[in-house]
Design brief:
The chain is an alpha/beta fold. It contains 14 helices and 16 strands. The structure holds 5-O-phosphono-beta-D-ribofuranose.
Length: about 425
Amino acid sequence: MNQIENLNLHFQNITYNWENLDRNNYHPTYFVSPKVLEKDRTQNPNDPSLWADPEDLNKLNTQEFLSYEGKIKKDSNSRPLNPHGPTGREGRGVLGKWGANFAADPIITRINKDGFLEVIVIKRKDSLKWALPGGMVDKGEHITTTLNRELQEESSVSLDFSQAIPIYQGFVNDPRNTDNAWMETDAYHLHLDKDEAKNISLKAGDDAQDAKWMVCSQGNVSSLYASHSDFIKDAILLYQQKTKNNILENGKIDIKEMEKKYPQALVIGRFQPLCNHHVAMLTEVVKTSGVKKILLCIGVSNQFDEKNFLYPNEVKQTLIPVLKKLKISYEINYIPDIHNPPKYAGYIESFFPEINEENTQLFTENSYTTDCFINYGHNYKVVKPTVLPHKATEVRSLMVNNNSEWKNLVPPHVAELINKNDCLSRLREIIKNKS
Ligand code: RP5
């Protein structure tokens, strides 16, 4: 057992907080690792390899300490106080930053060939404990970049985290925490389908002693480093909720019979234009619902307006590459607007005669569409997909305002089509004629 874990033992079973602490009987040990002092960035602010704060708090640019846990209190020496209470150790120990040390943790799962849920874990060099392949966020770095960089450094795997699901943000019960420095993290979950998982070959990187896929049995998941067991348990809960699959105690997936009977997904939208938000939704439908076919309805208006500036065939052209990439069979129909809620579900059924409430579930986040499919004599199963923050309305507004940011919110092939067909001029013309 190393020195830090040993010290931690004194405190791990008792809950102290700063308010009820008997300070006369509290004698913490002050410790800052020589390695931290060596890496003091104020020695040369231009050297990116110097990652630690100065020991002298007065040399910090700000005395405000950021934290996901809320406002941070300070002690009489202006040192930040651990929001989860005393630890028995003062100073920063082996952590570089005063206050929160921000990390990011990727939770990558797959279902193995025998039907067990597995997660990528690495063996840490410091404690020899199995852990998520997470690491510290570099200054100014976006979390999705940290997630991929750390995954690469620890397990030699590279993945796109733009559609990963946020699981946790906050304090980590890390053995390195002290009264004045502690770990906080953002944990994200990415579930890989068979094809994606097939391309992964794990190899321990420089920061880890070993890397492996670990079966998510209750025993395995409960014995990980710091709070990582809790992050994985939360990710599994959410995964179960979304897929309606049950994960048994030994990690095996128990696909509920009830969910198997919906082979088709009905997806209705205007996709003006198709943006990353729609792609995330279609990906989620394919990956989590078990459907075999997507029936796509492109809502079509009989005239151009600020919400309808693309031709139906242009919308179709943007959707097809996405569906092909998802390797799902599909059928696409143009659905002219009828503005008649009681008739709407029957109207859609007339375009796809094979659908009924037994074989098709509707995926929508739109309450108008939901209403049409669960009322007026209908009882379709409606699933609300996870909604990403950016939407087509925002993309169109950026376009109208000549803000090229819109290109970051749509897949590259959509931006290409919009440029090639000069759809931006078309949209601006529509807006101009309206006013
Ligand atoms: C944990 O420490 C975090 O959850 C993250 O996994 C890790 C980051 O520290 P290093 O791996 O960079 O040491 O508290």
